[in-house]
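Why this split exists: single-chain examples teach little about how molecules sit against one another. For that reason, every record in the complexes split bundles all components of an assembly together and asks for one structure covering all of them. Below is a record exactly as it appears in the raw files.
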Amino acid sequence: MWIDLIVEPFQYKFMIRALIVCLAVGVMCPFLGAHVINREMGFMGDALAHSVMPGLVAAYAVGLTPMFGAIPLGITVALVIGYVVKRSNVSNDTAMGILFAGLFALGLVLLSLLGGSGINVEDILLGQVMGTSDMDVYVTITVTVLTLLLMILLYKQMIFVGFDFEGAVVAGLPASRIDYLLLVVLSIVIVVSLQVVGIILVVGMLITPAASASLIVKRFSHVISLGIGFGVISSVVGLYFSYYFNLPSGPAIALVSTAIFLMSFIVHGLKR
Amino acid sequence: MSNLISKCPCMESQCDCCIQVFGACVEFENFLALDDVSFAISPGVLTGVVGPNGGGKSTLFNALVGLQPTAHGKILVNGLPPGNSKGRVSYVPQKEHVNWRFPLSVRDVVSLGKVSQGSLLNKLGLGVSSLVEESLRKVDMWDSREDLVSNLSGGERQRTFIARALTQEADILILDEAFSGVDISSQEGVLNVLRSLRDEGKTILMATHDLNTLADRFDDLLCLNRHVCAHGKPEVVFTEEVLVELYGSHGEMFAEHRIGQHAHVD
């Protein structure tokens, strides 16, 4: 009976594709998220997500997989933001706010000009993982493998630079380049996650599971592993809700991860 | 420039100075933070860098470790320009420059020392546990190795960073305002660690604007107020002229009270 409810959705190919993408995003986002919450980069994540809108729309318009438009734009924006944060006199959130509002607006205008070309705004903003194509799945798997490899190989370097930038420079690490690399990886992970949670809610997937984990465990490595657990639970349980109640996948998943956060908050309160 | 390098600022014909600064100037938007600074430091000396706030202590340290380019002059650390030290220099920044939010244990932080160099195993943080343990024991932090650095006292944090420098196998340690927010008894603990490292041949520079008991604490003092006012043994360096140069006429008060003998100075 229960087994049927759990197995039934996966008689459809589109649900199997959706599950693979959800698992990948559930793993990648909290891994990056552990760095994001400790470096206070949440707004940067939100800004990156909104900024890739023109890339998504342009790729749609010429018949490409949307990620092929969004990934190059995401990387460019990440490098610009990284440069502005390091060099500019304008405060970080001001600079990011200007960039993100401008590019998001450009995306909406492009969308409007193309009107009726079969793009559903709601899918872009809120995610529609059940609409993923085979190509989306291949790109997602490739990005996931590369991201995990990089984040594991540079695990200590990324911590050193985030914890003590000056000490890392003096110890001989290419600290600035590592910062830029983290931003580039973050932008790619965000783009891949858009199909699952959409532009508006991607920041929730990035931050909430890692933040929930950090309420329960104290070590950075444990925050990553428990955060990945929470991320996978959120995305898979959210996928079921989305299937059975005919909801956009983004809100369904974000709601589950918020519920996990509330429970973690209560557990944290009880422990104190 | 090359004729400058022919002779070390220590003025000895032959020396083994590991830090050499030749007429270094650092400029910030029409303001000279360091003005023609020259000095040299021999290995195995514990030097205190003293001077008023804004006197250029942090700027000098940043220049020594390669974080701050110089407008004029030359700096050599182990005979190389700053920033080429390949991990032989370790820097303990002011505590405001560290992101304490990261949930790292004492052992996590100390093991970072090995990340920048060596084999892939080292870079992954594997295969260095014996060196990390040795470093932690030297600074007496082994029993606290699982504590989060964010929960440590000021003195414990300093000792953790010193252990990181040991894991890095640095031979020059540079500590910026290491005693701000550290109570007197913990300061003593940090100093004991620094003295034993000095005895092992490490070269240590530490900035402080706290003039208490300076004489007992350091082998040498470098007095800095945008230029070098004096450099040498504490008892030789602390003359009335130097104190006035450092702190203005207010410094006379310190001189009359004989710095180094009093428990507290405002």
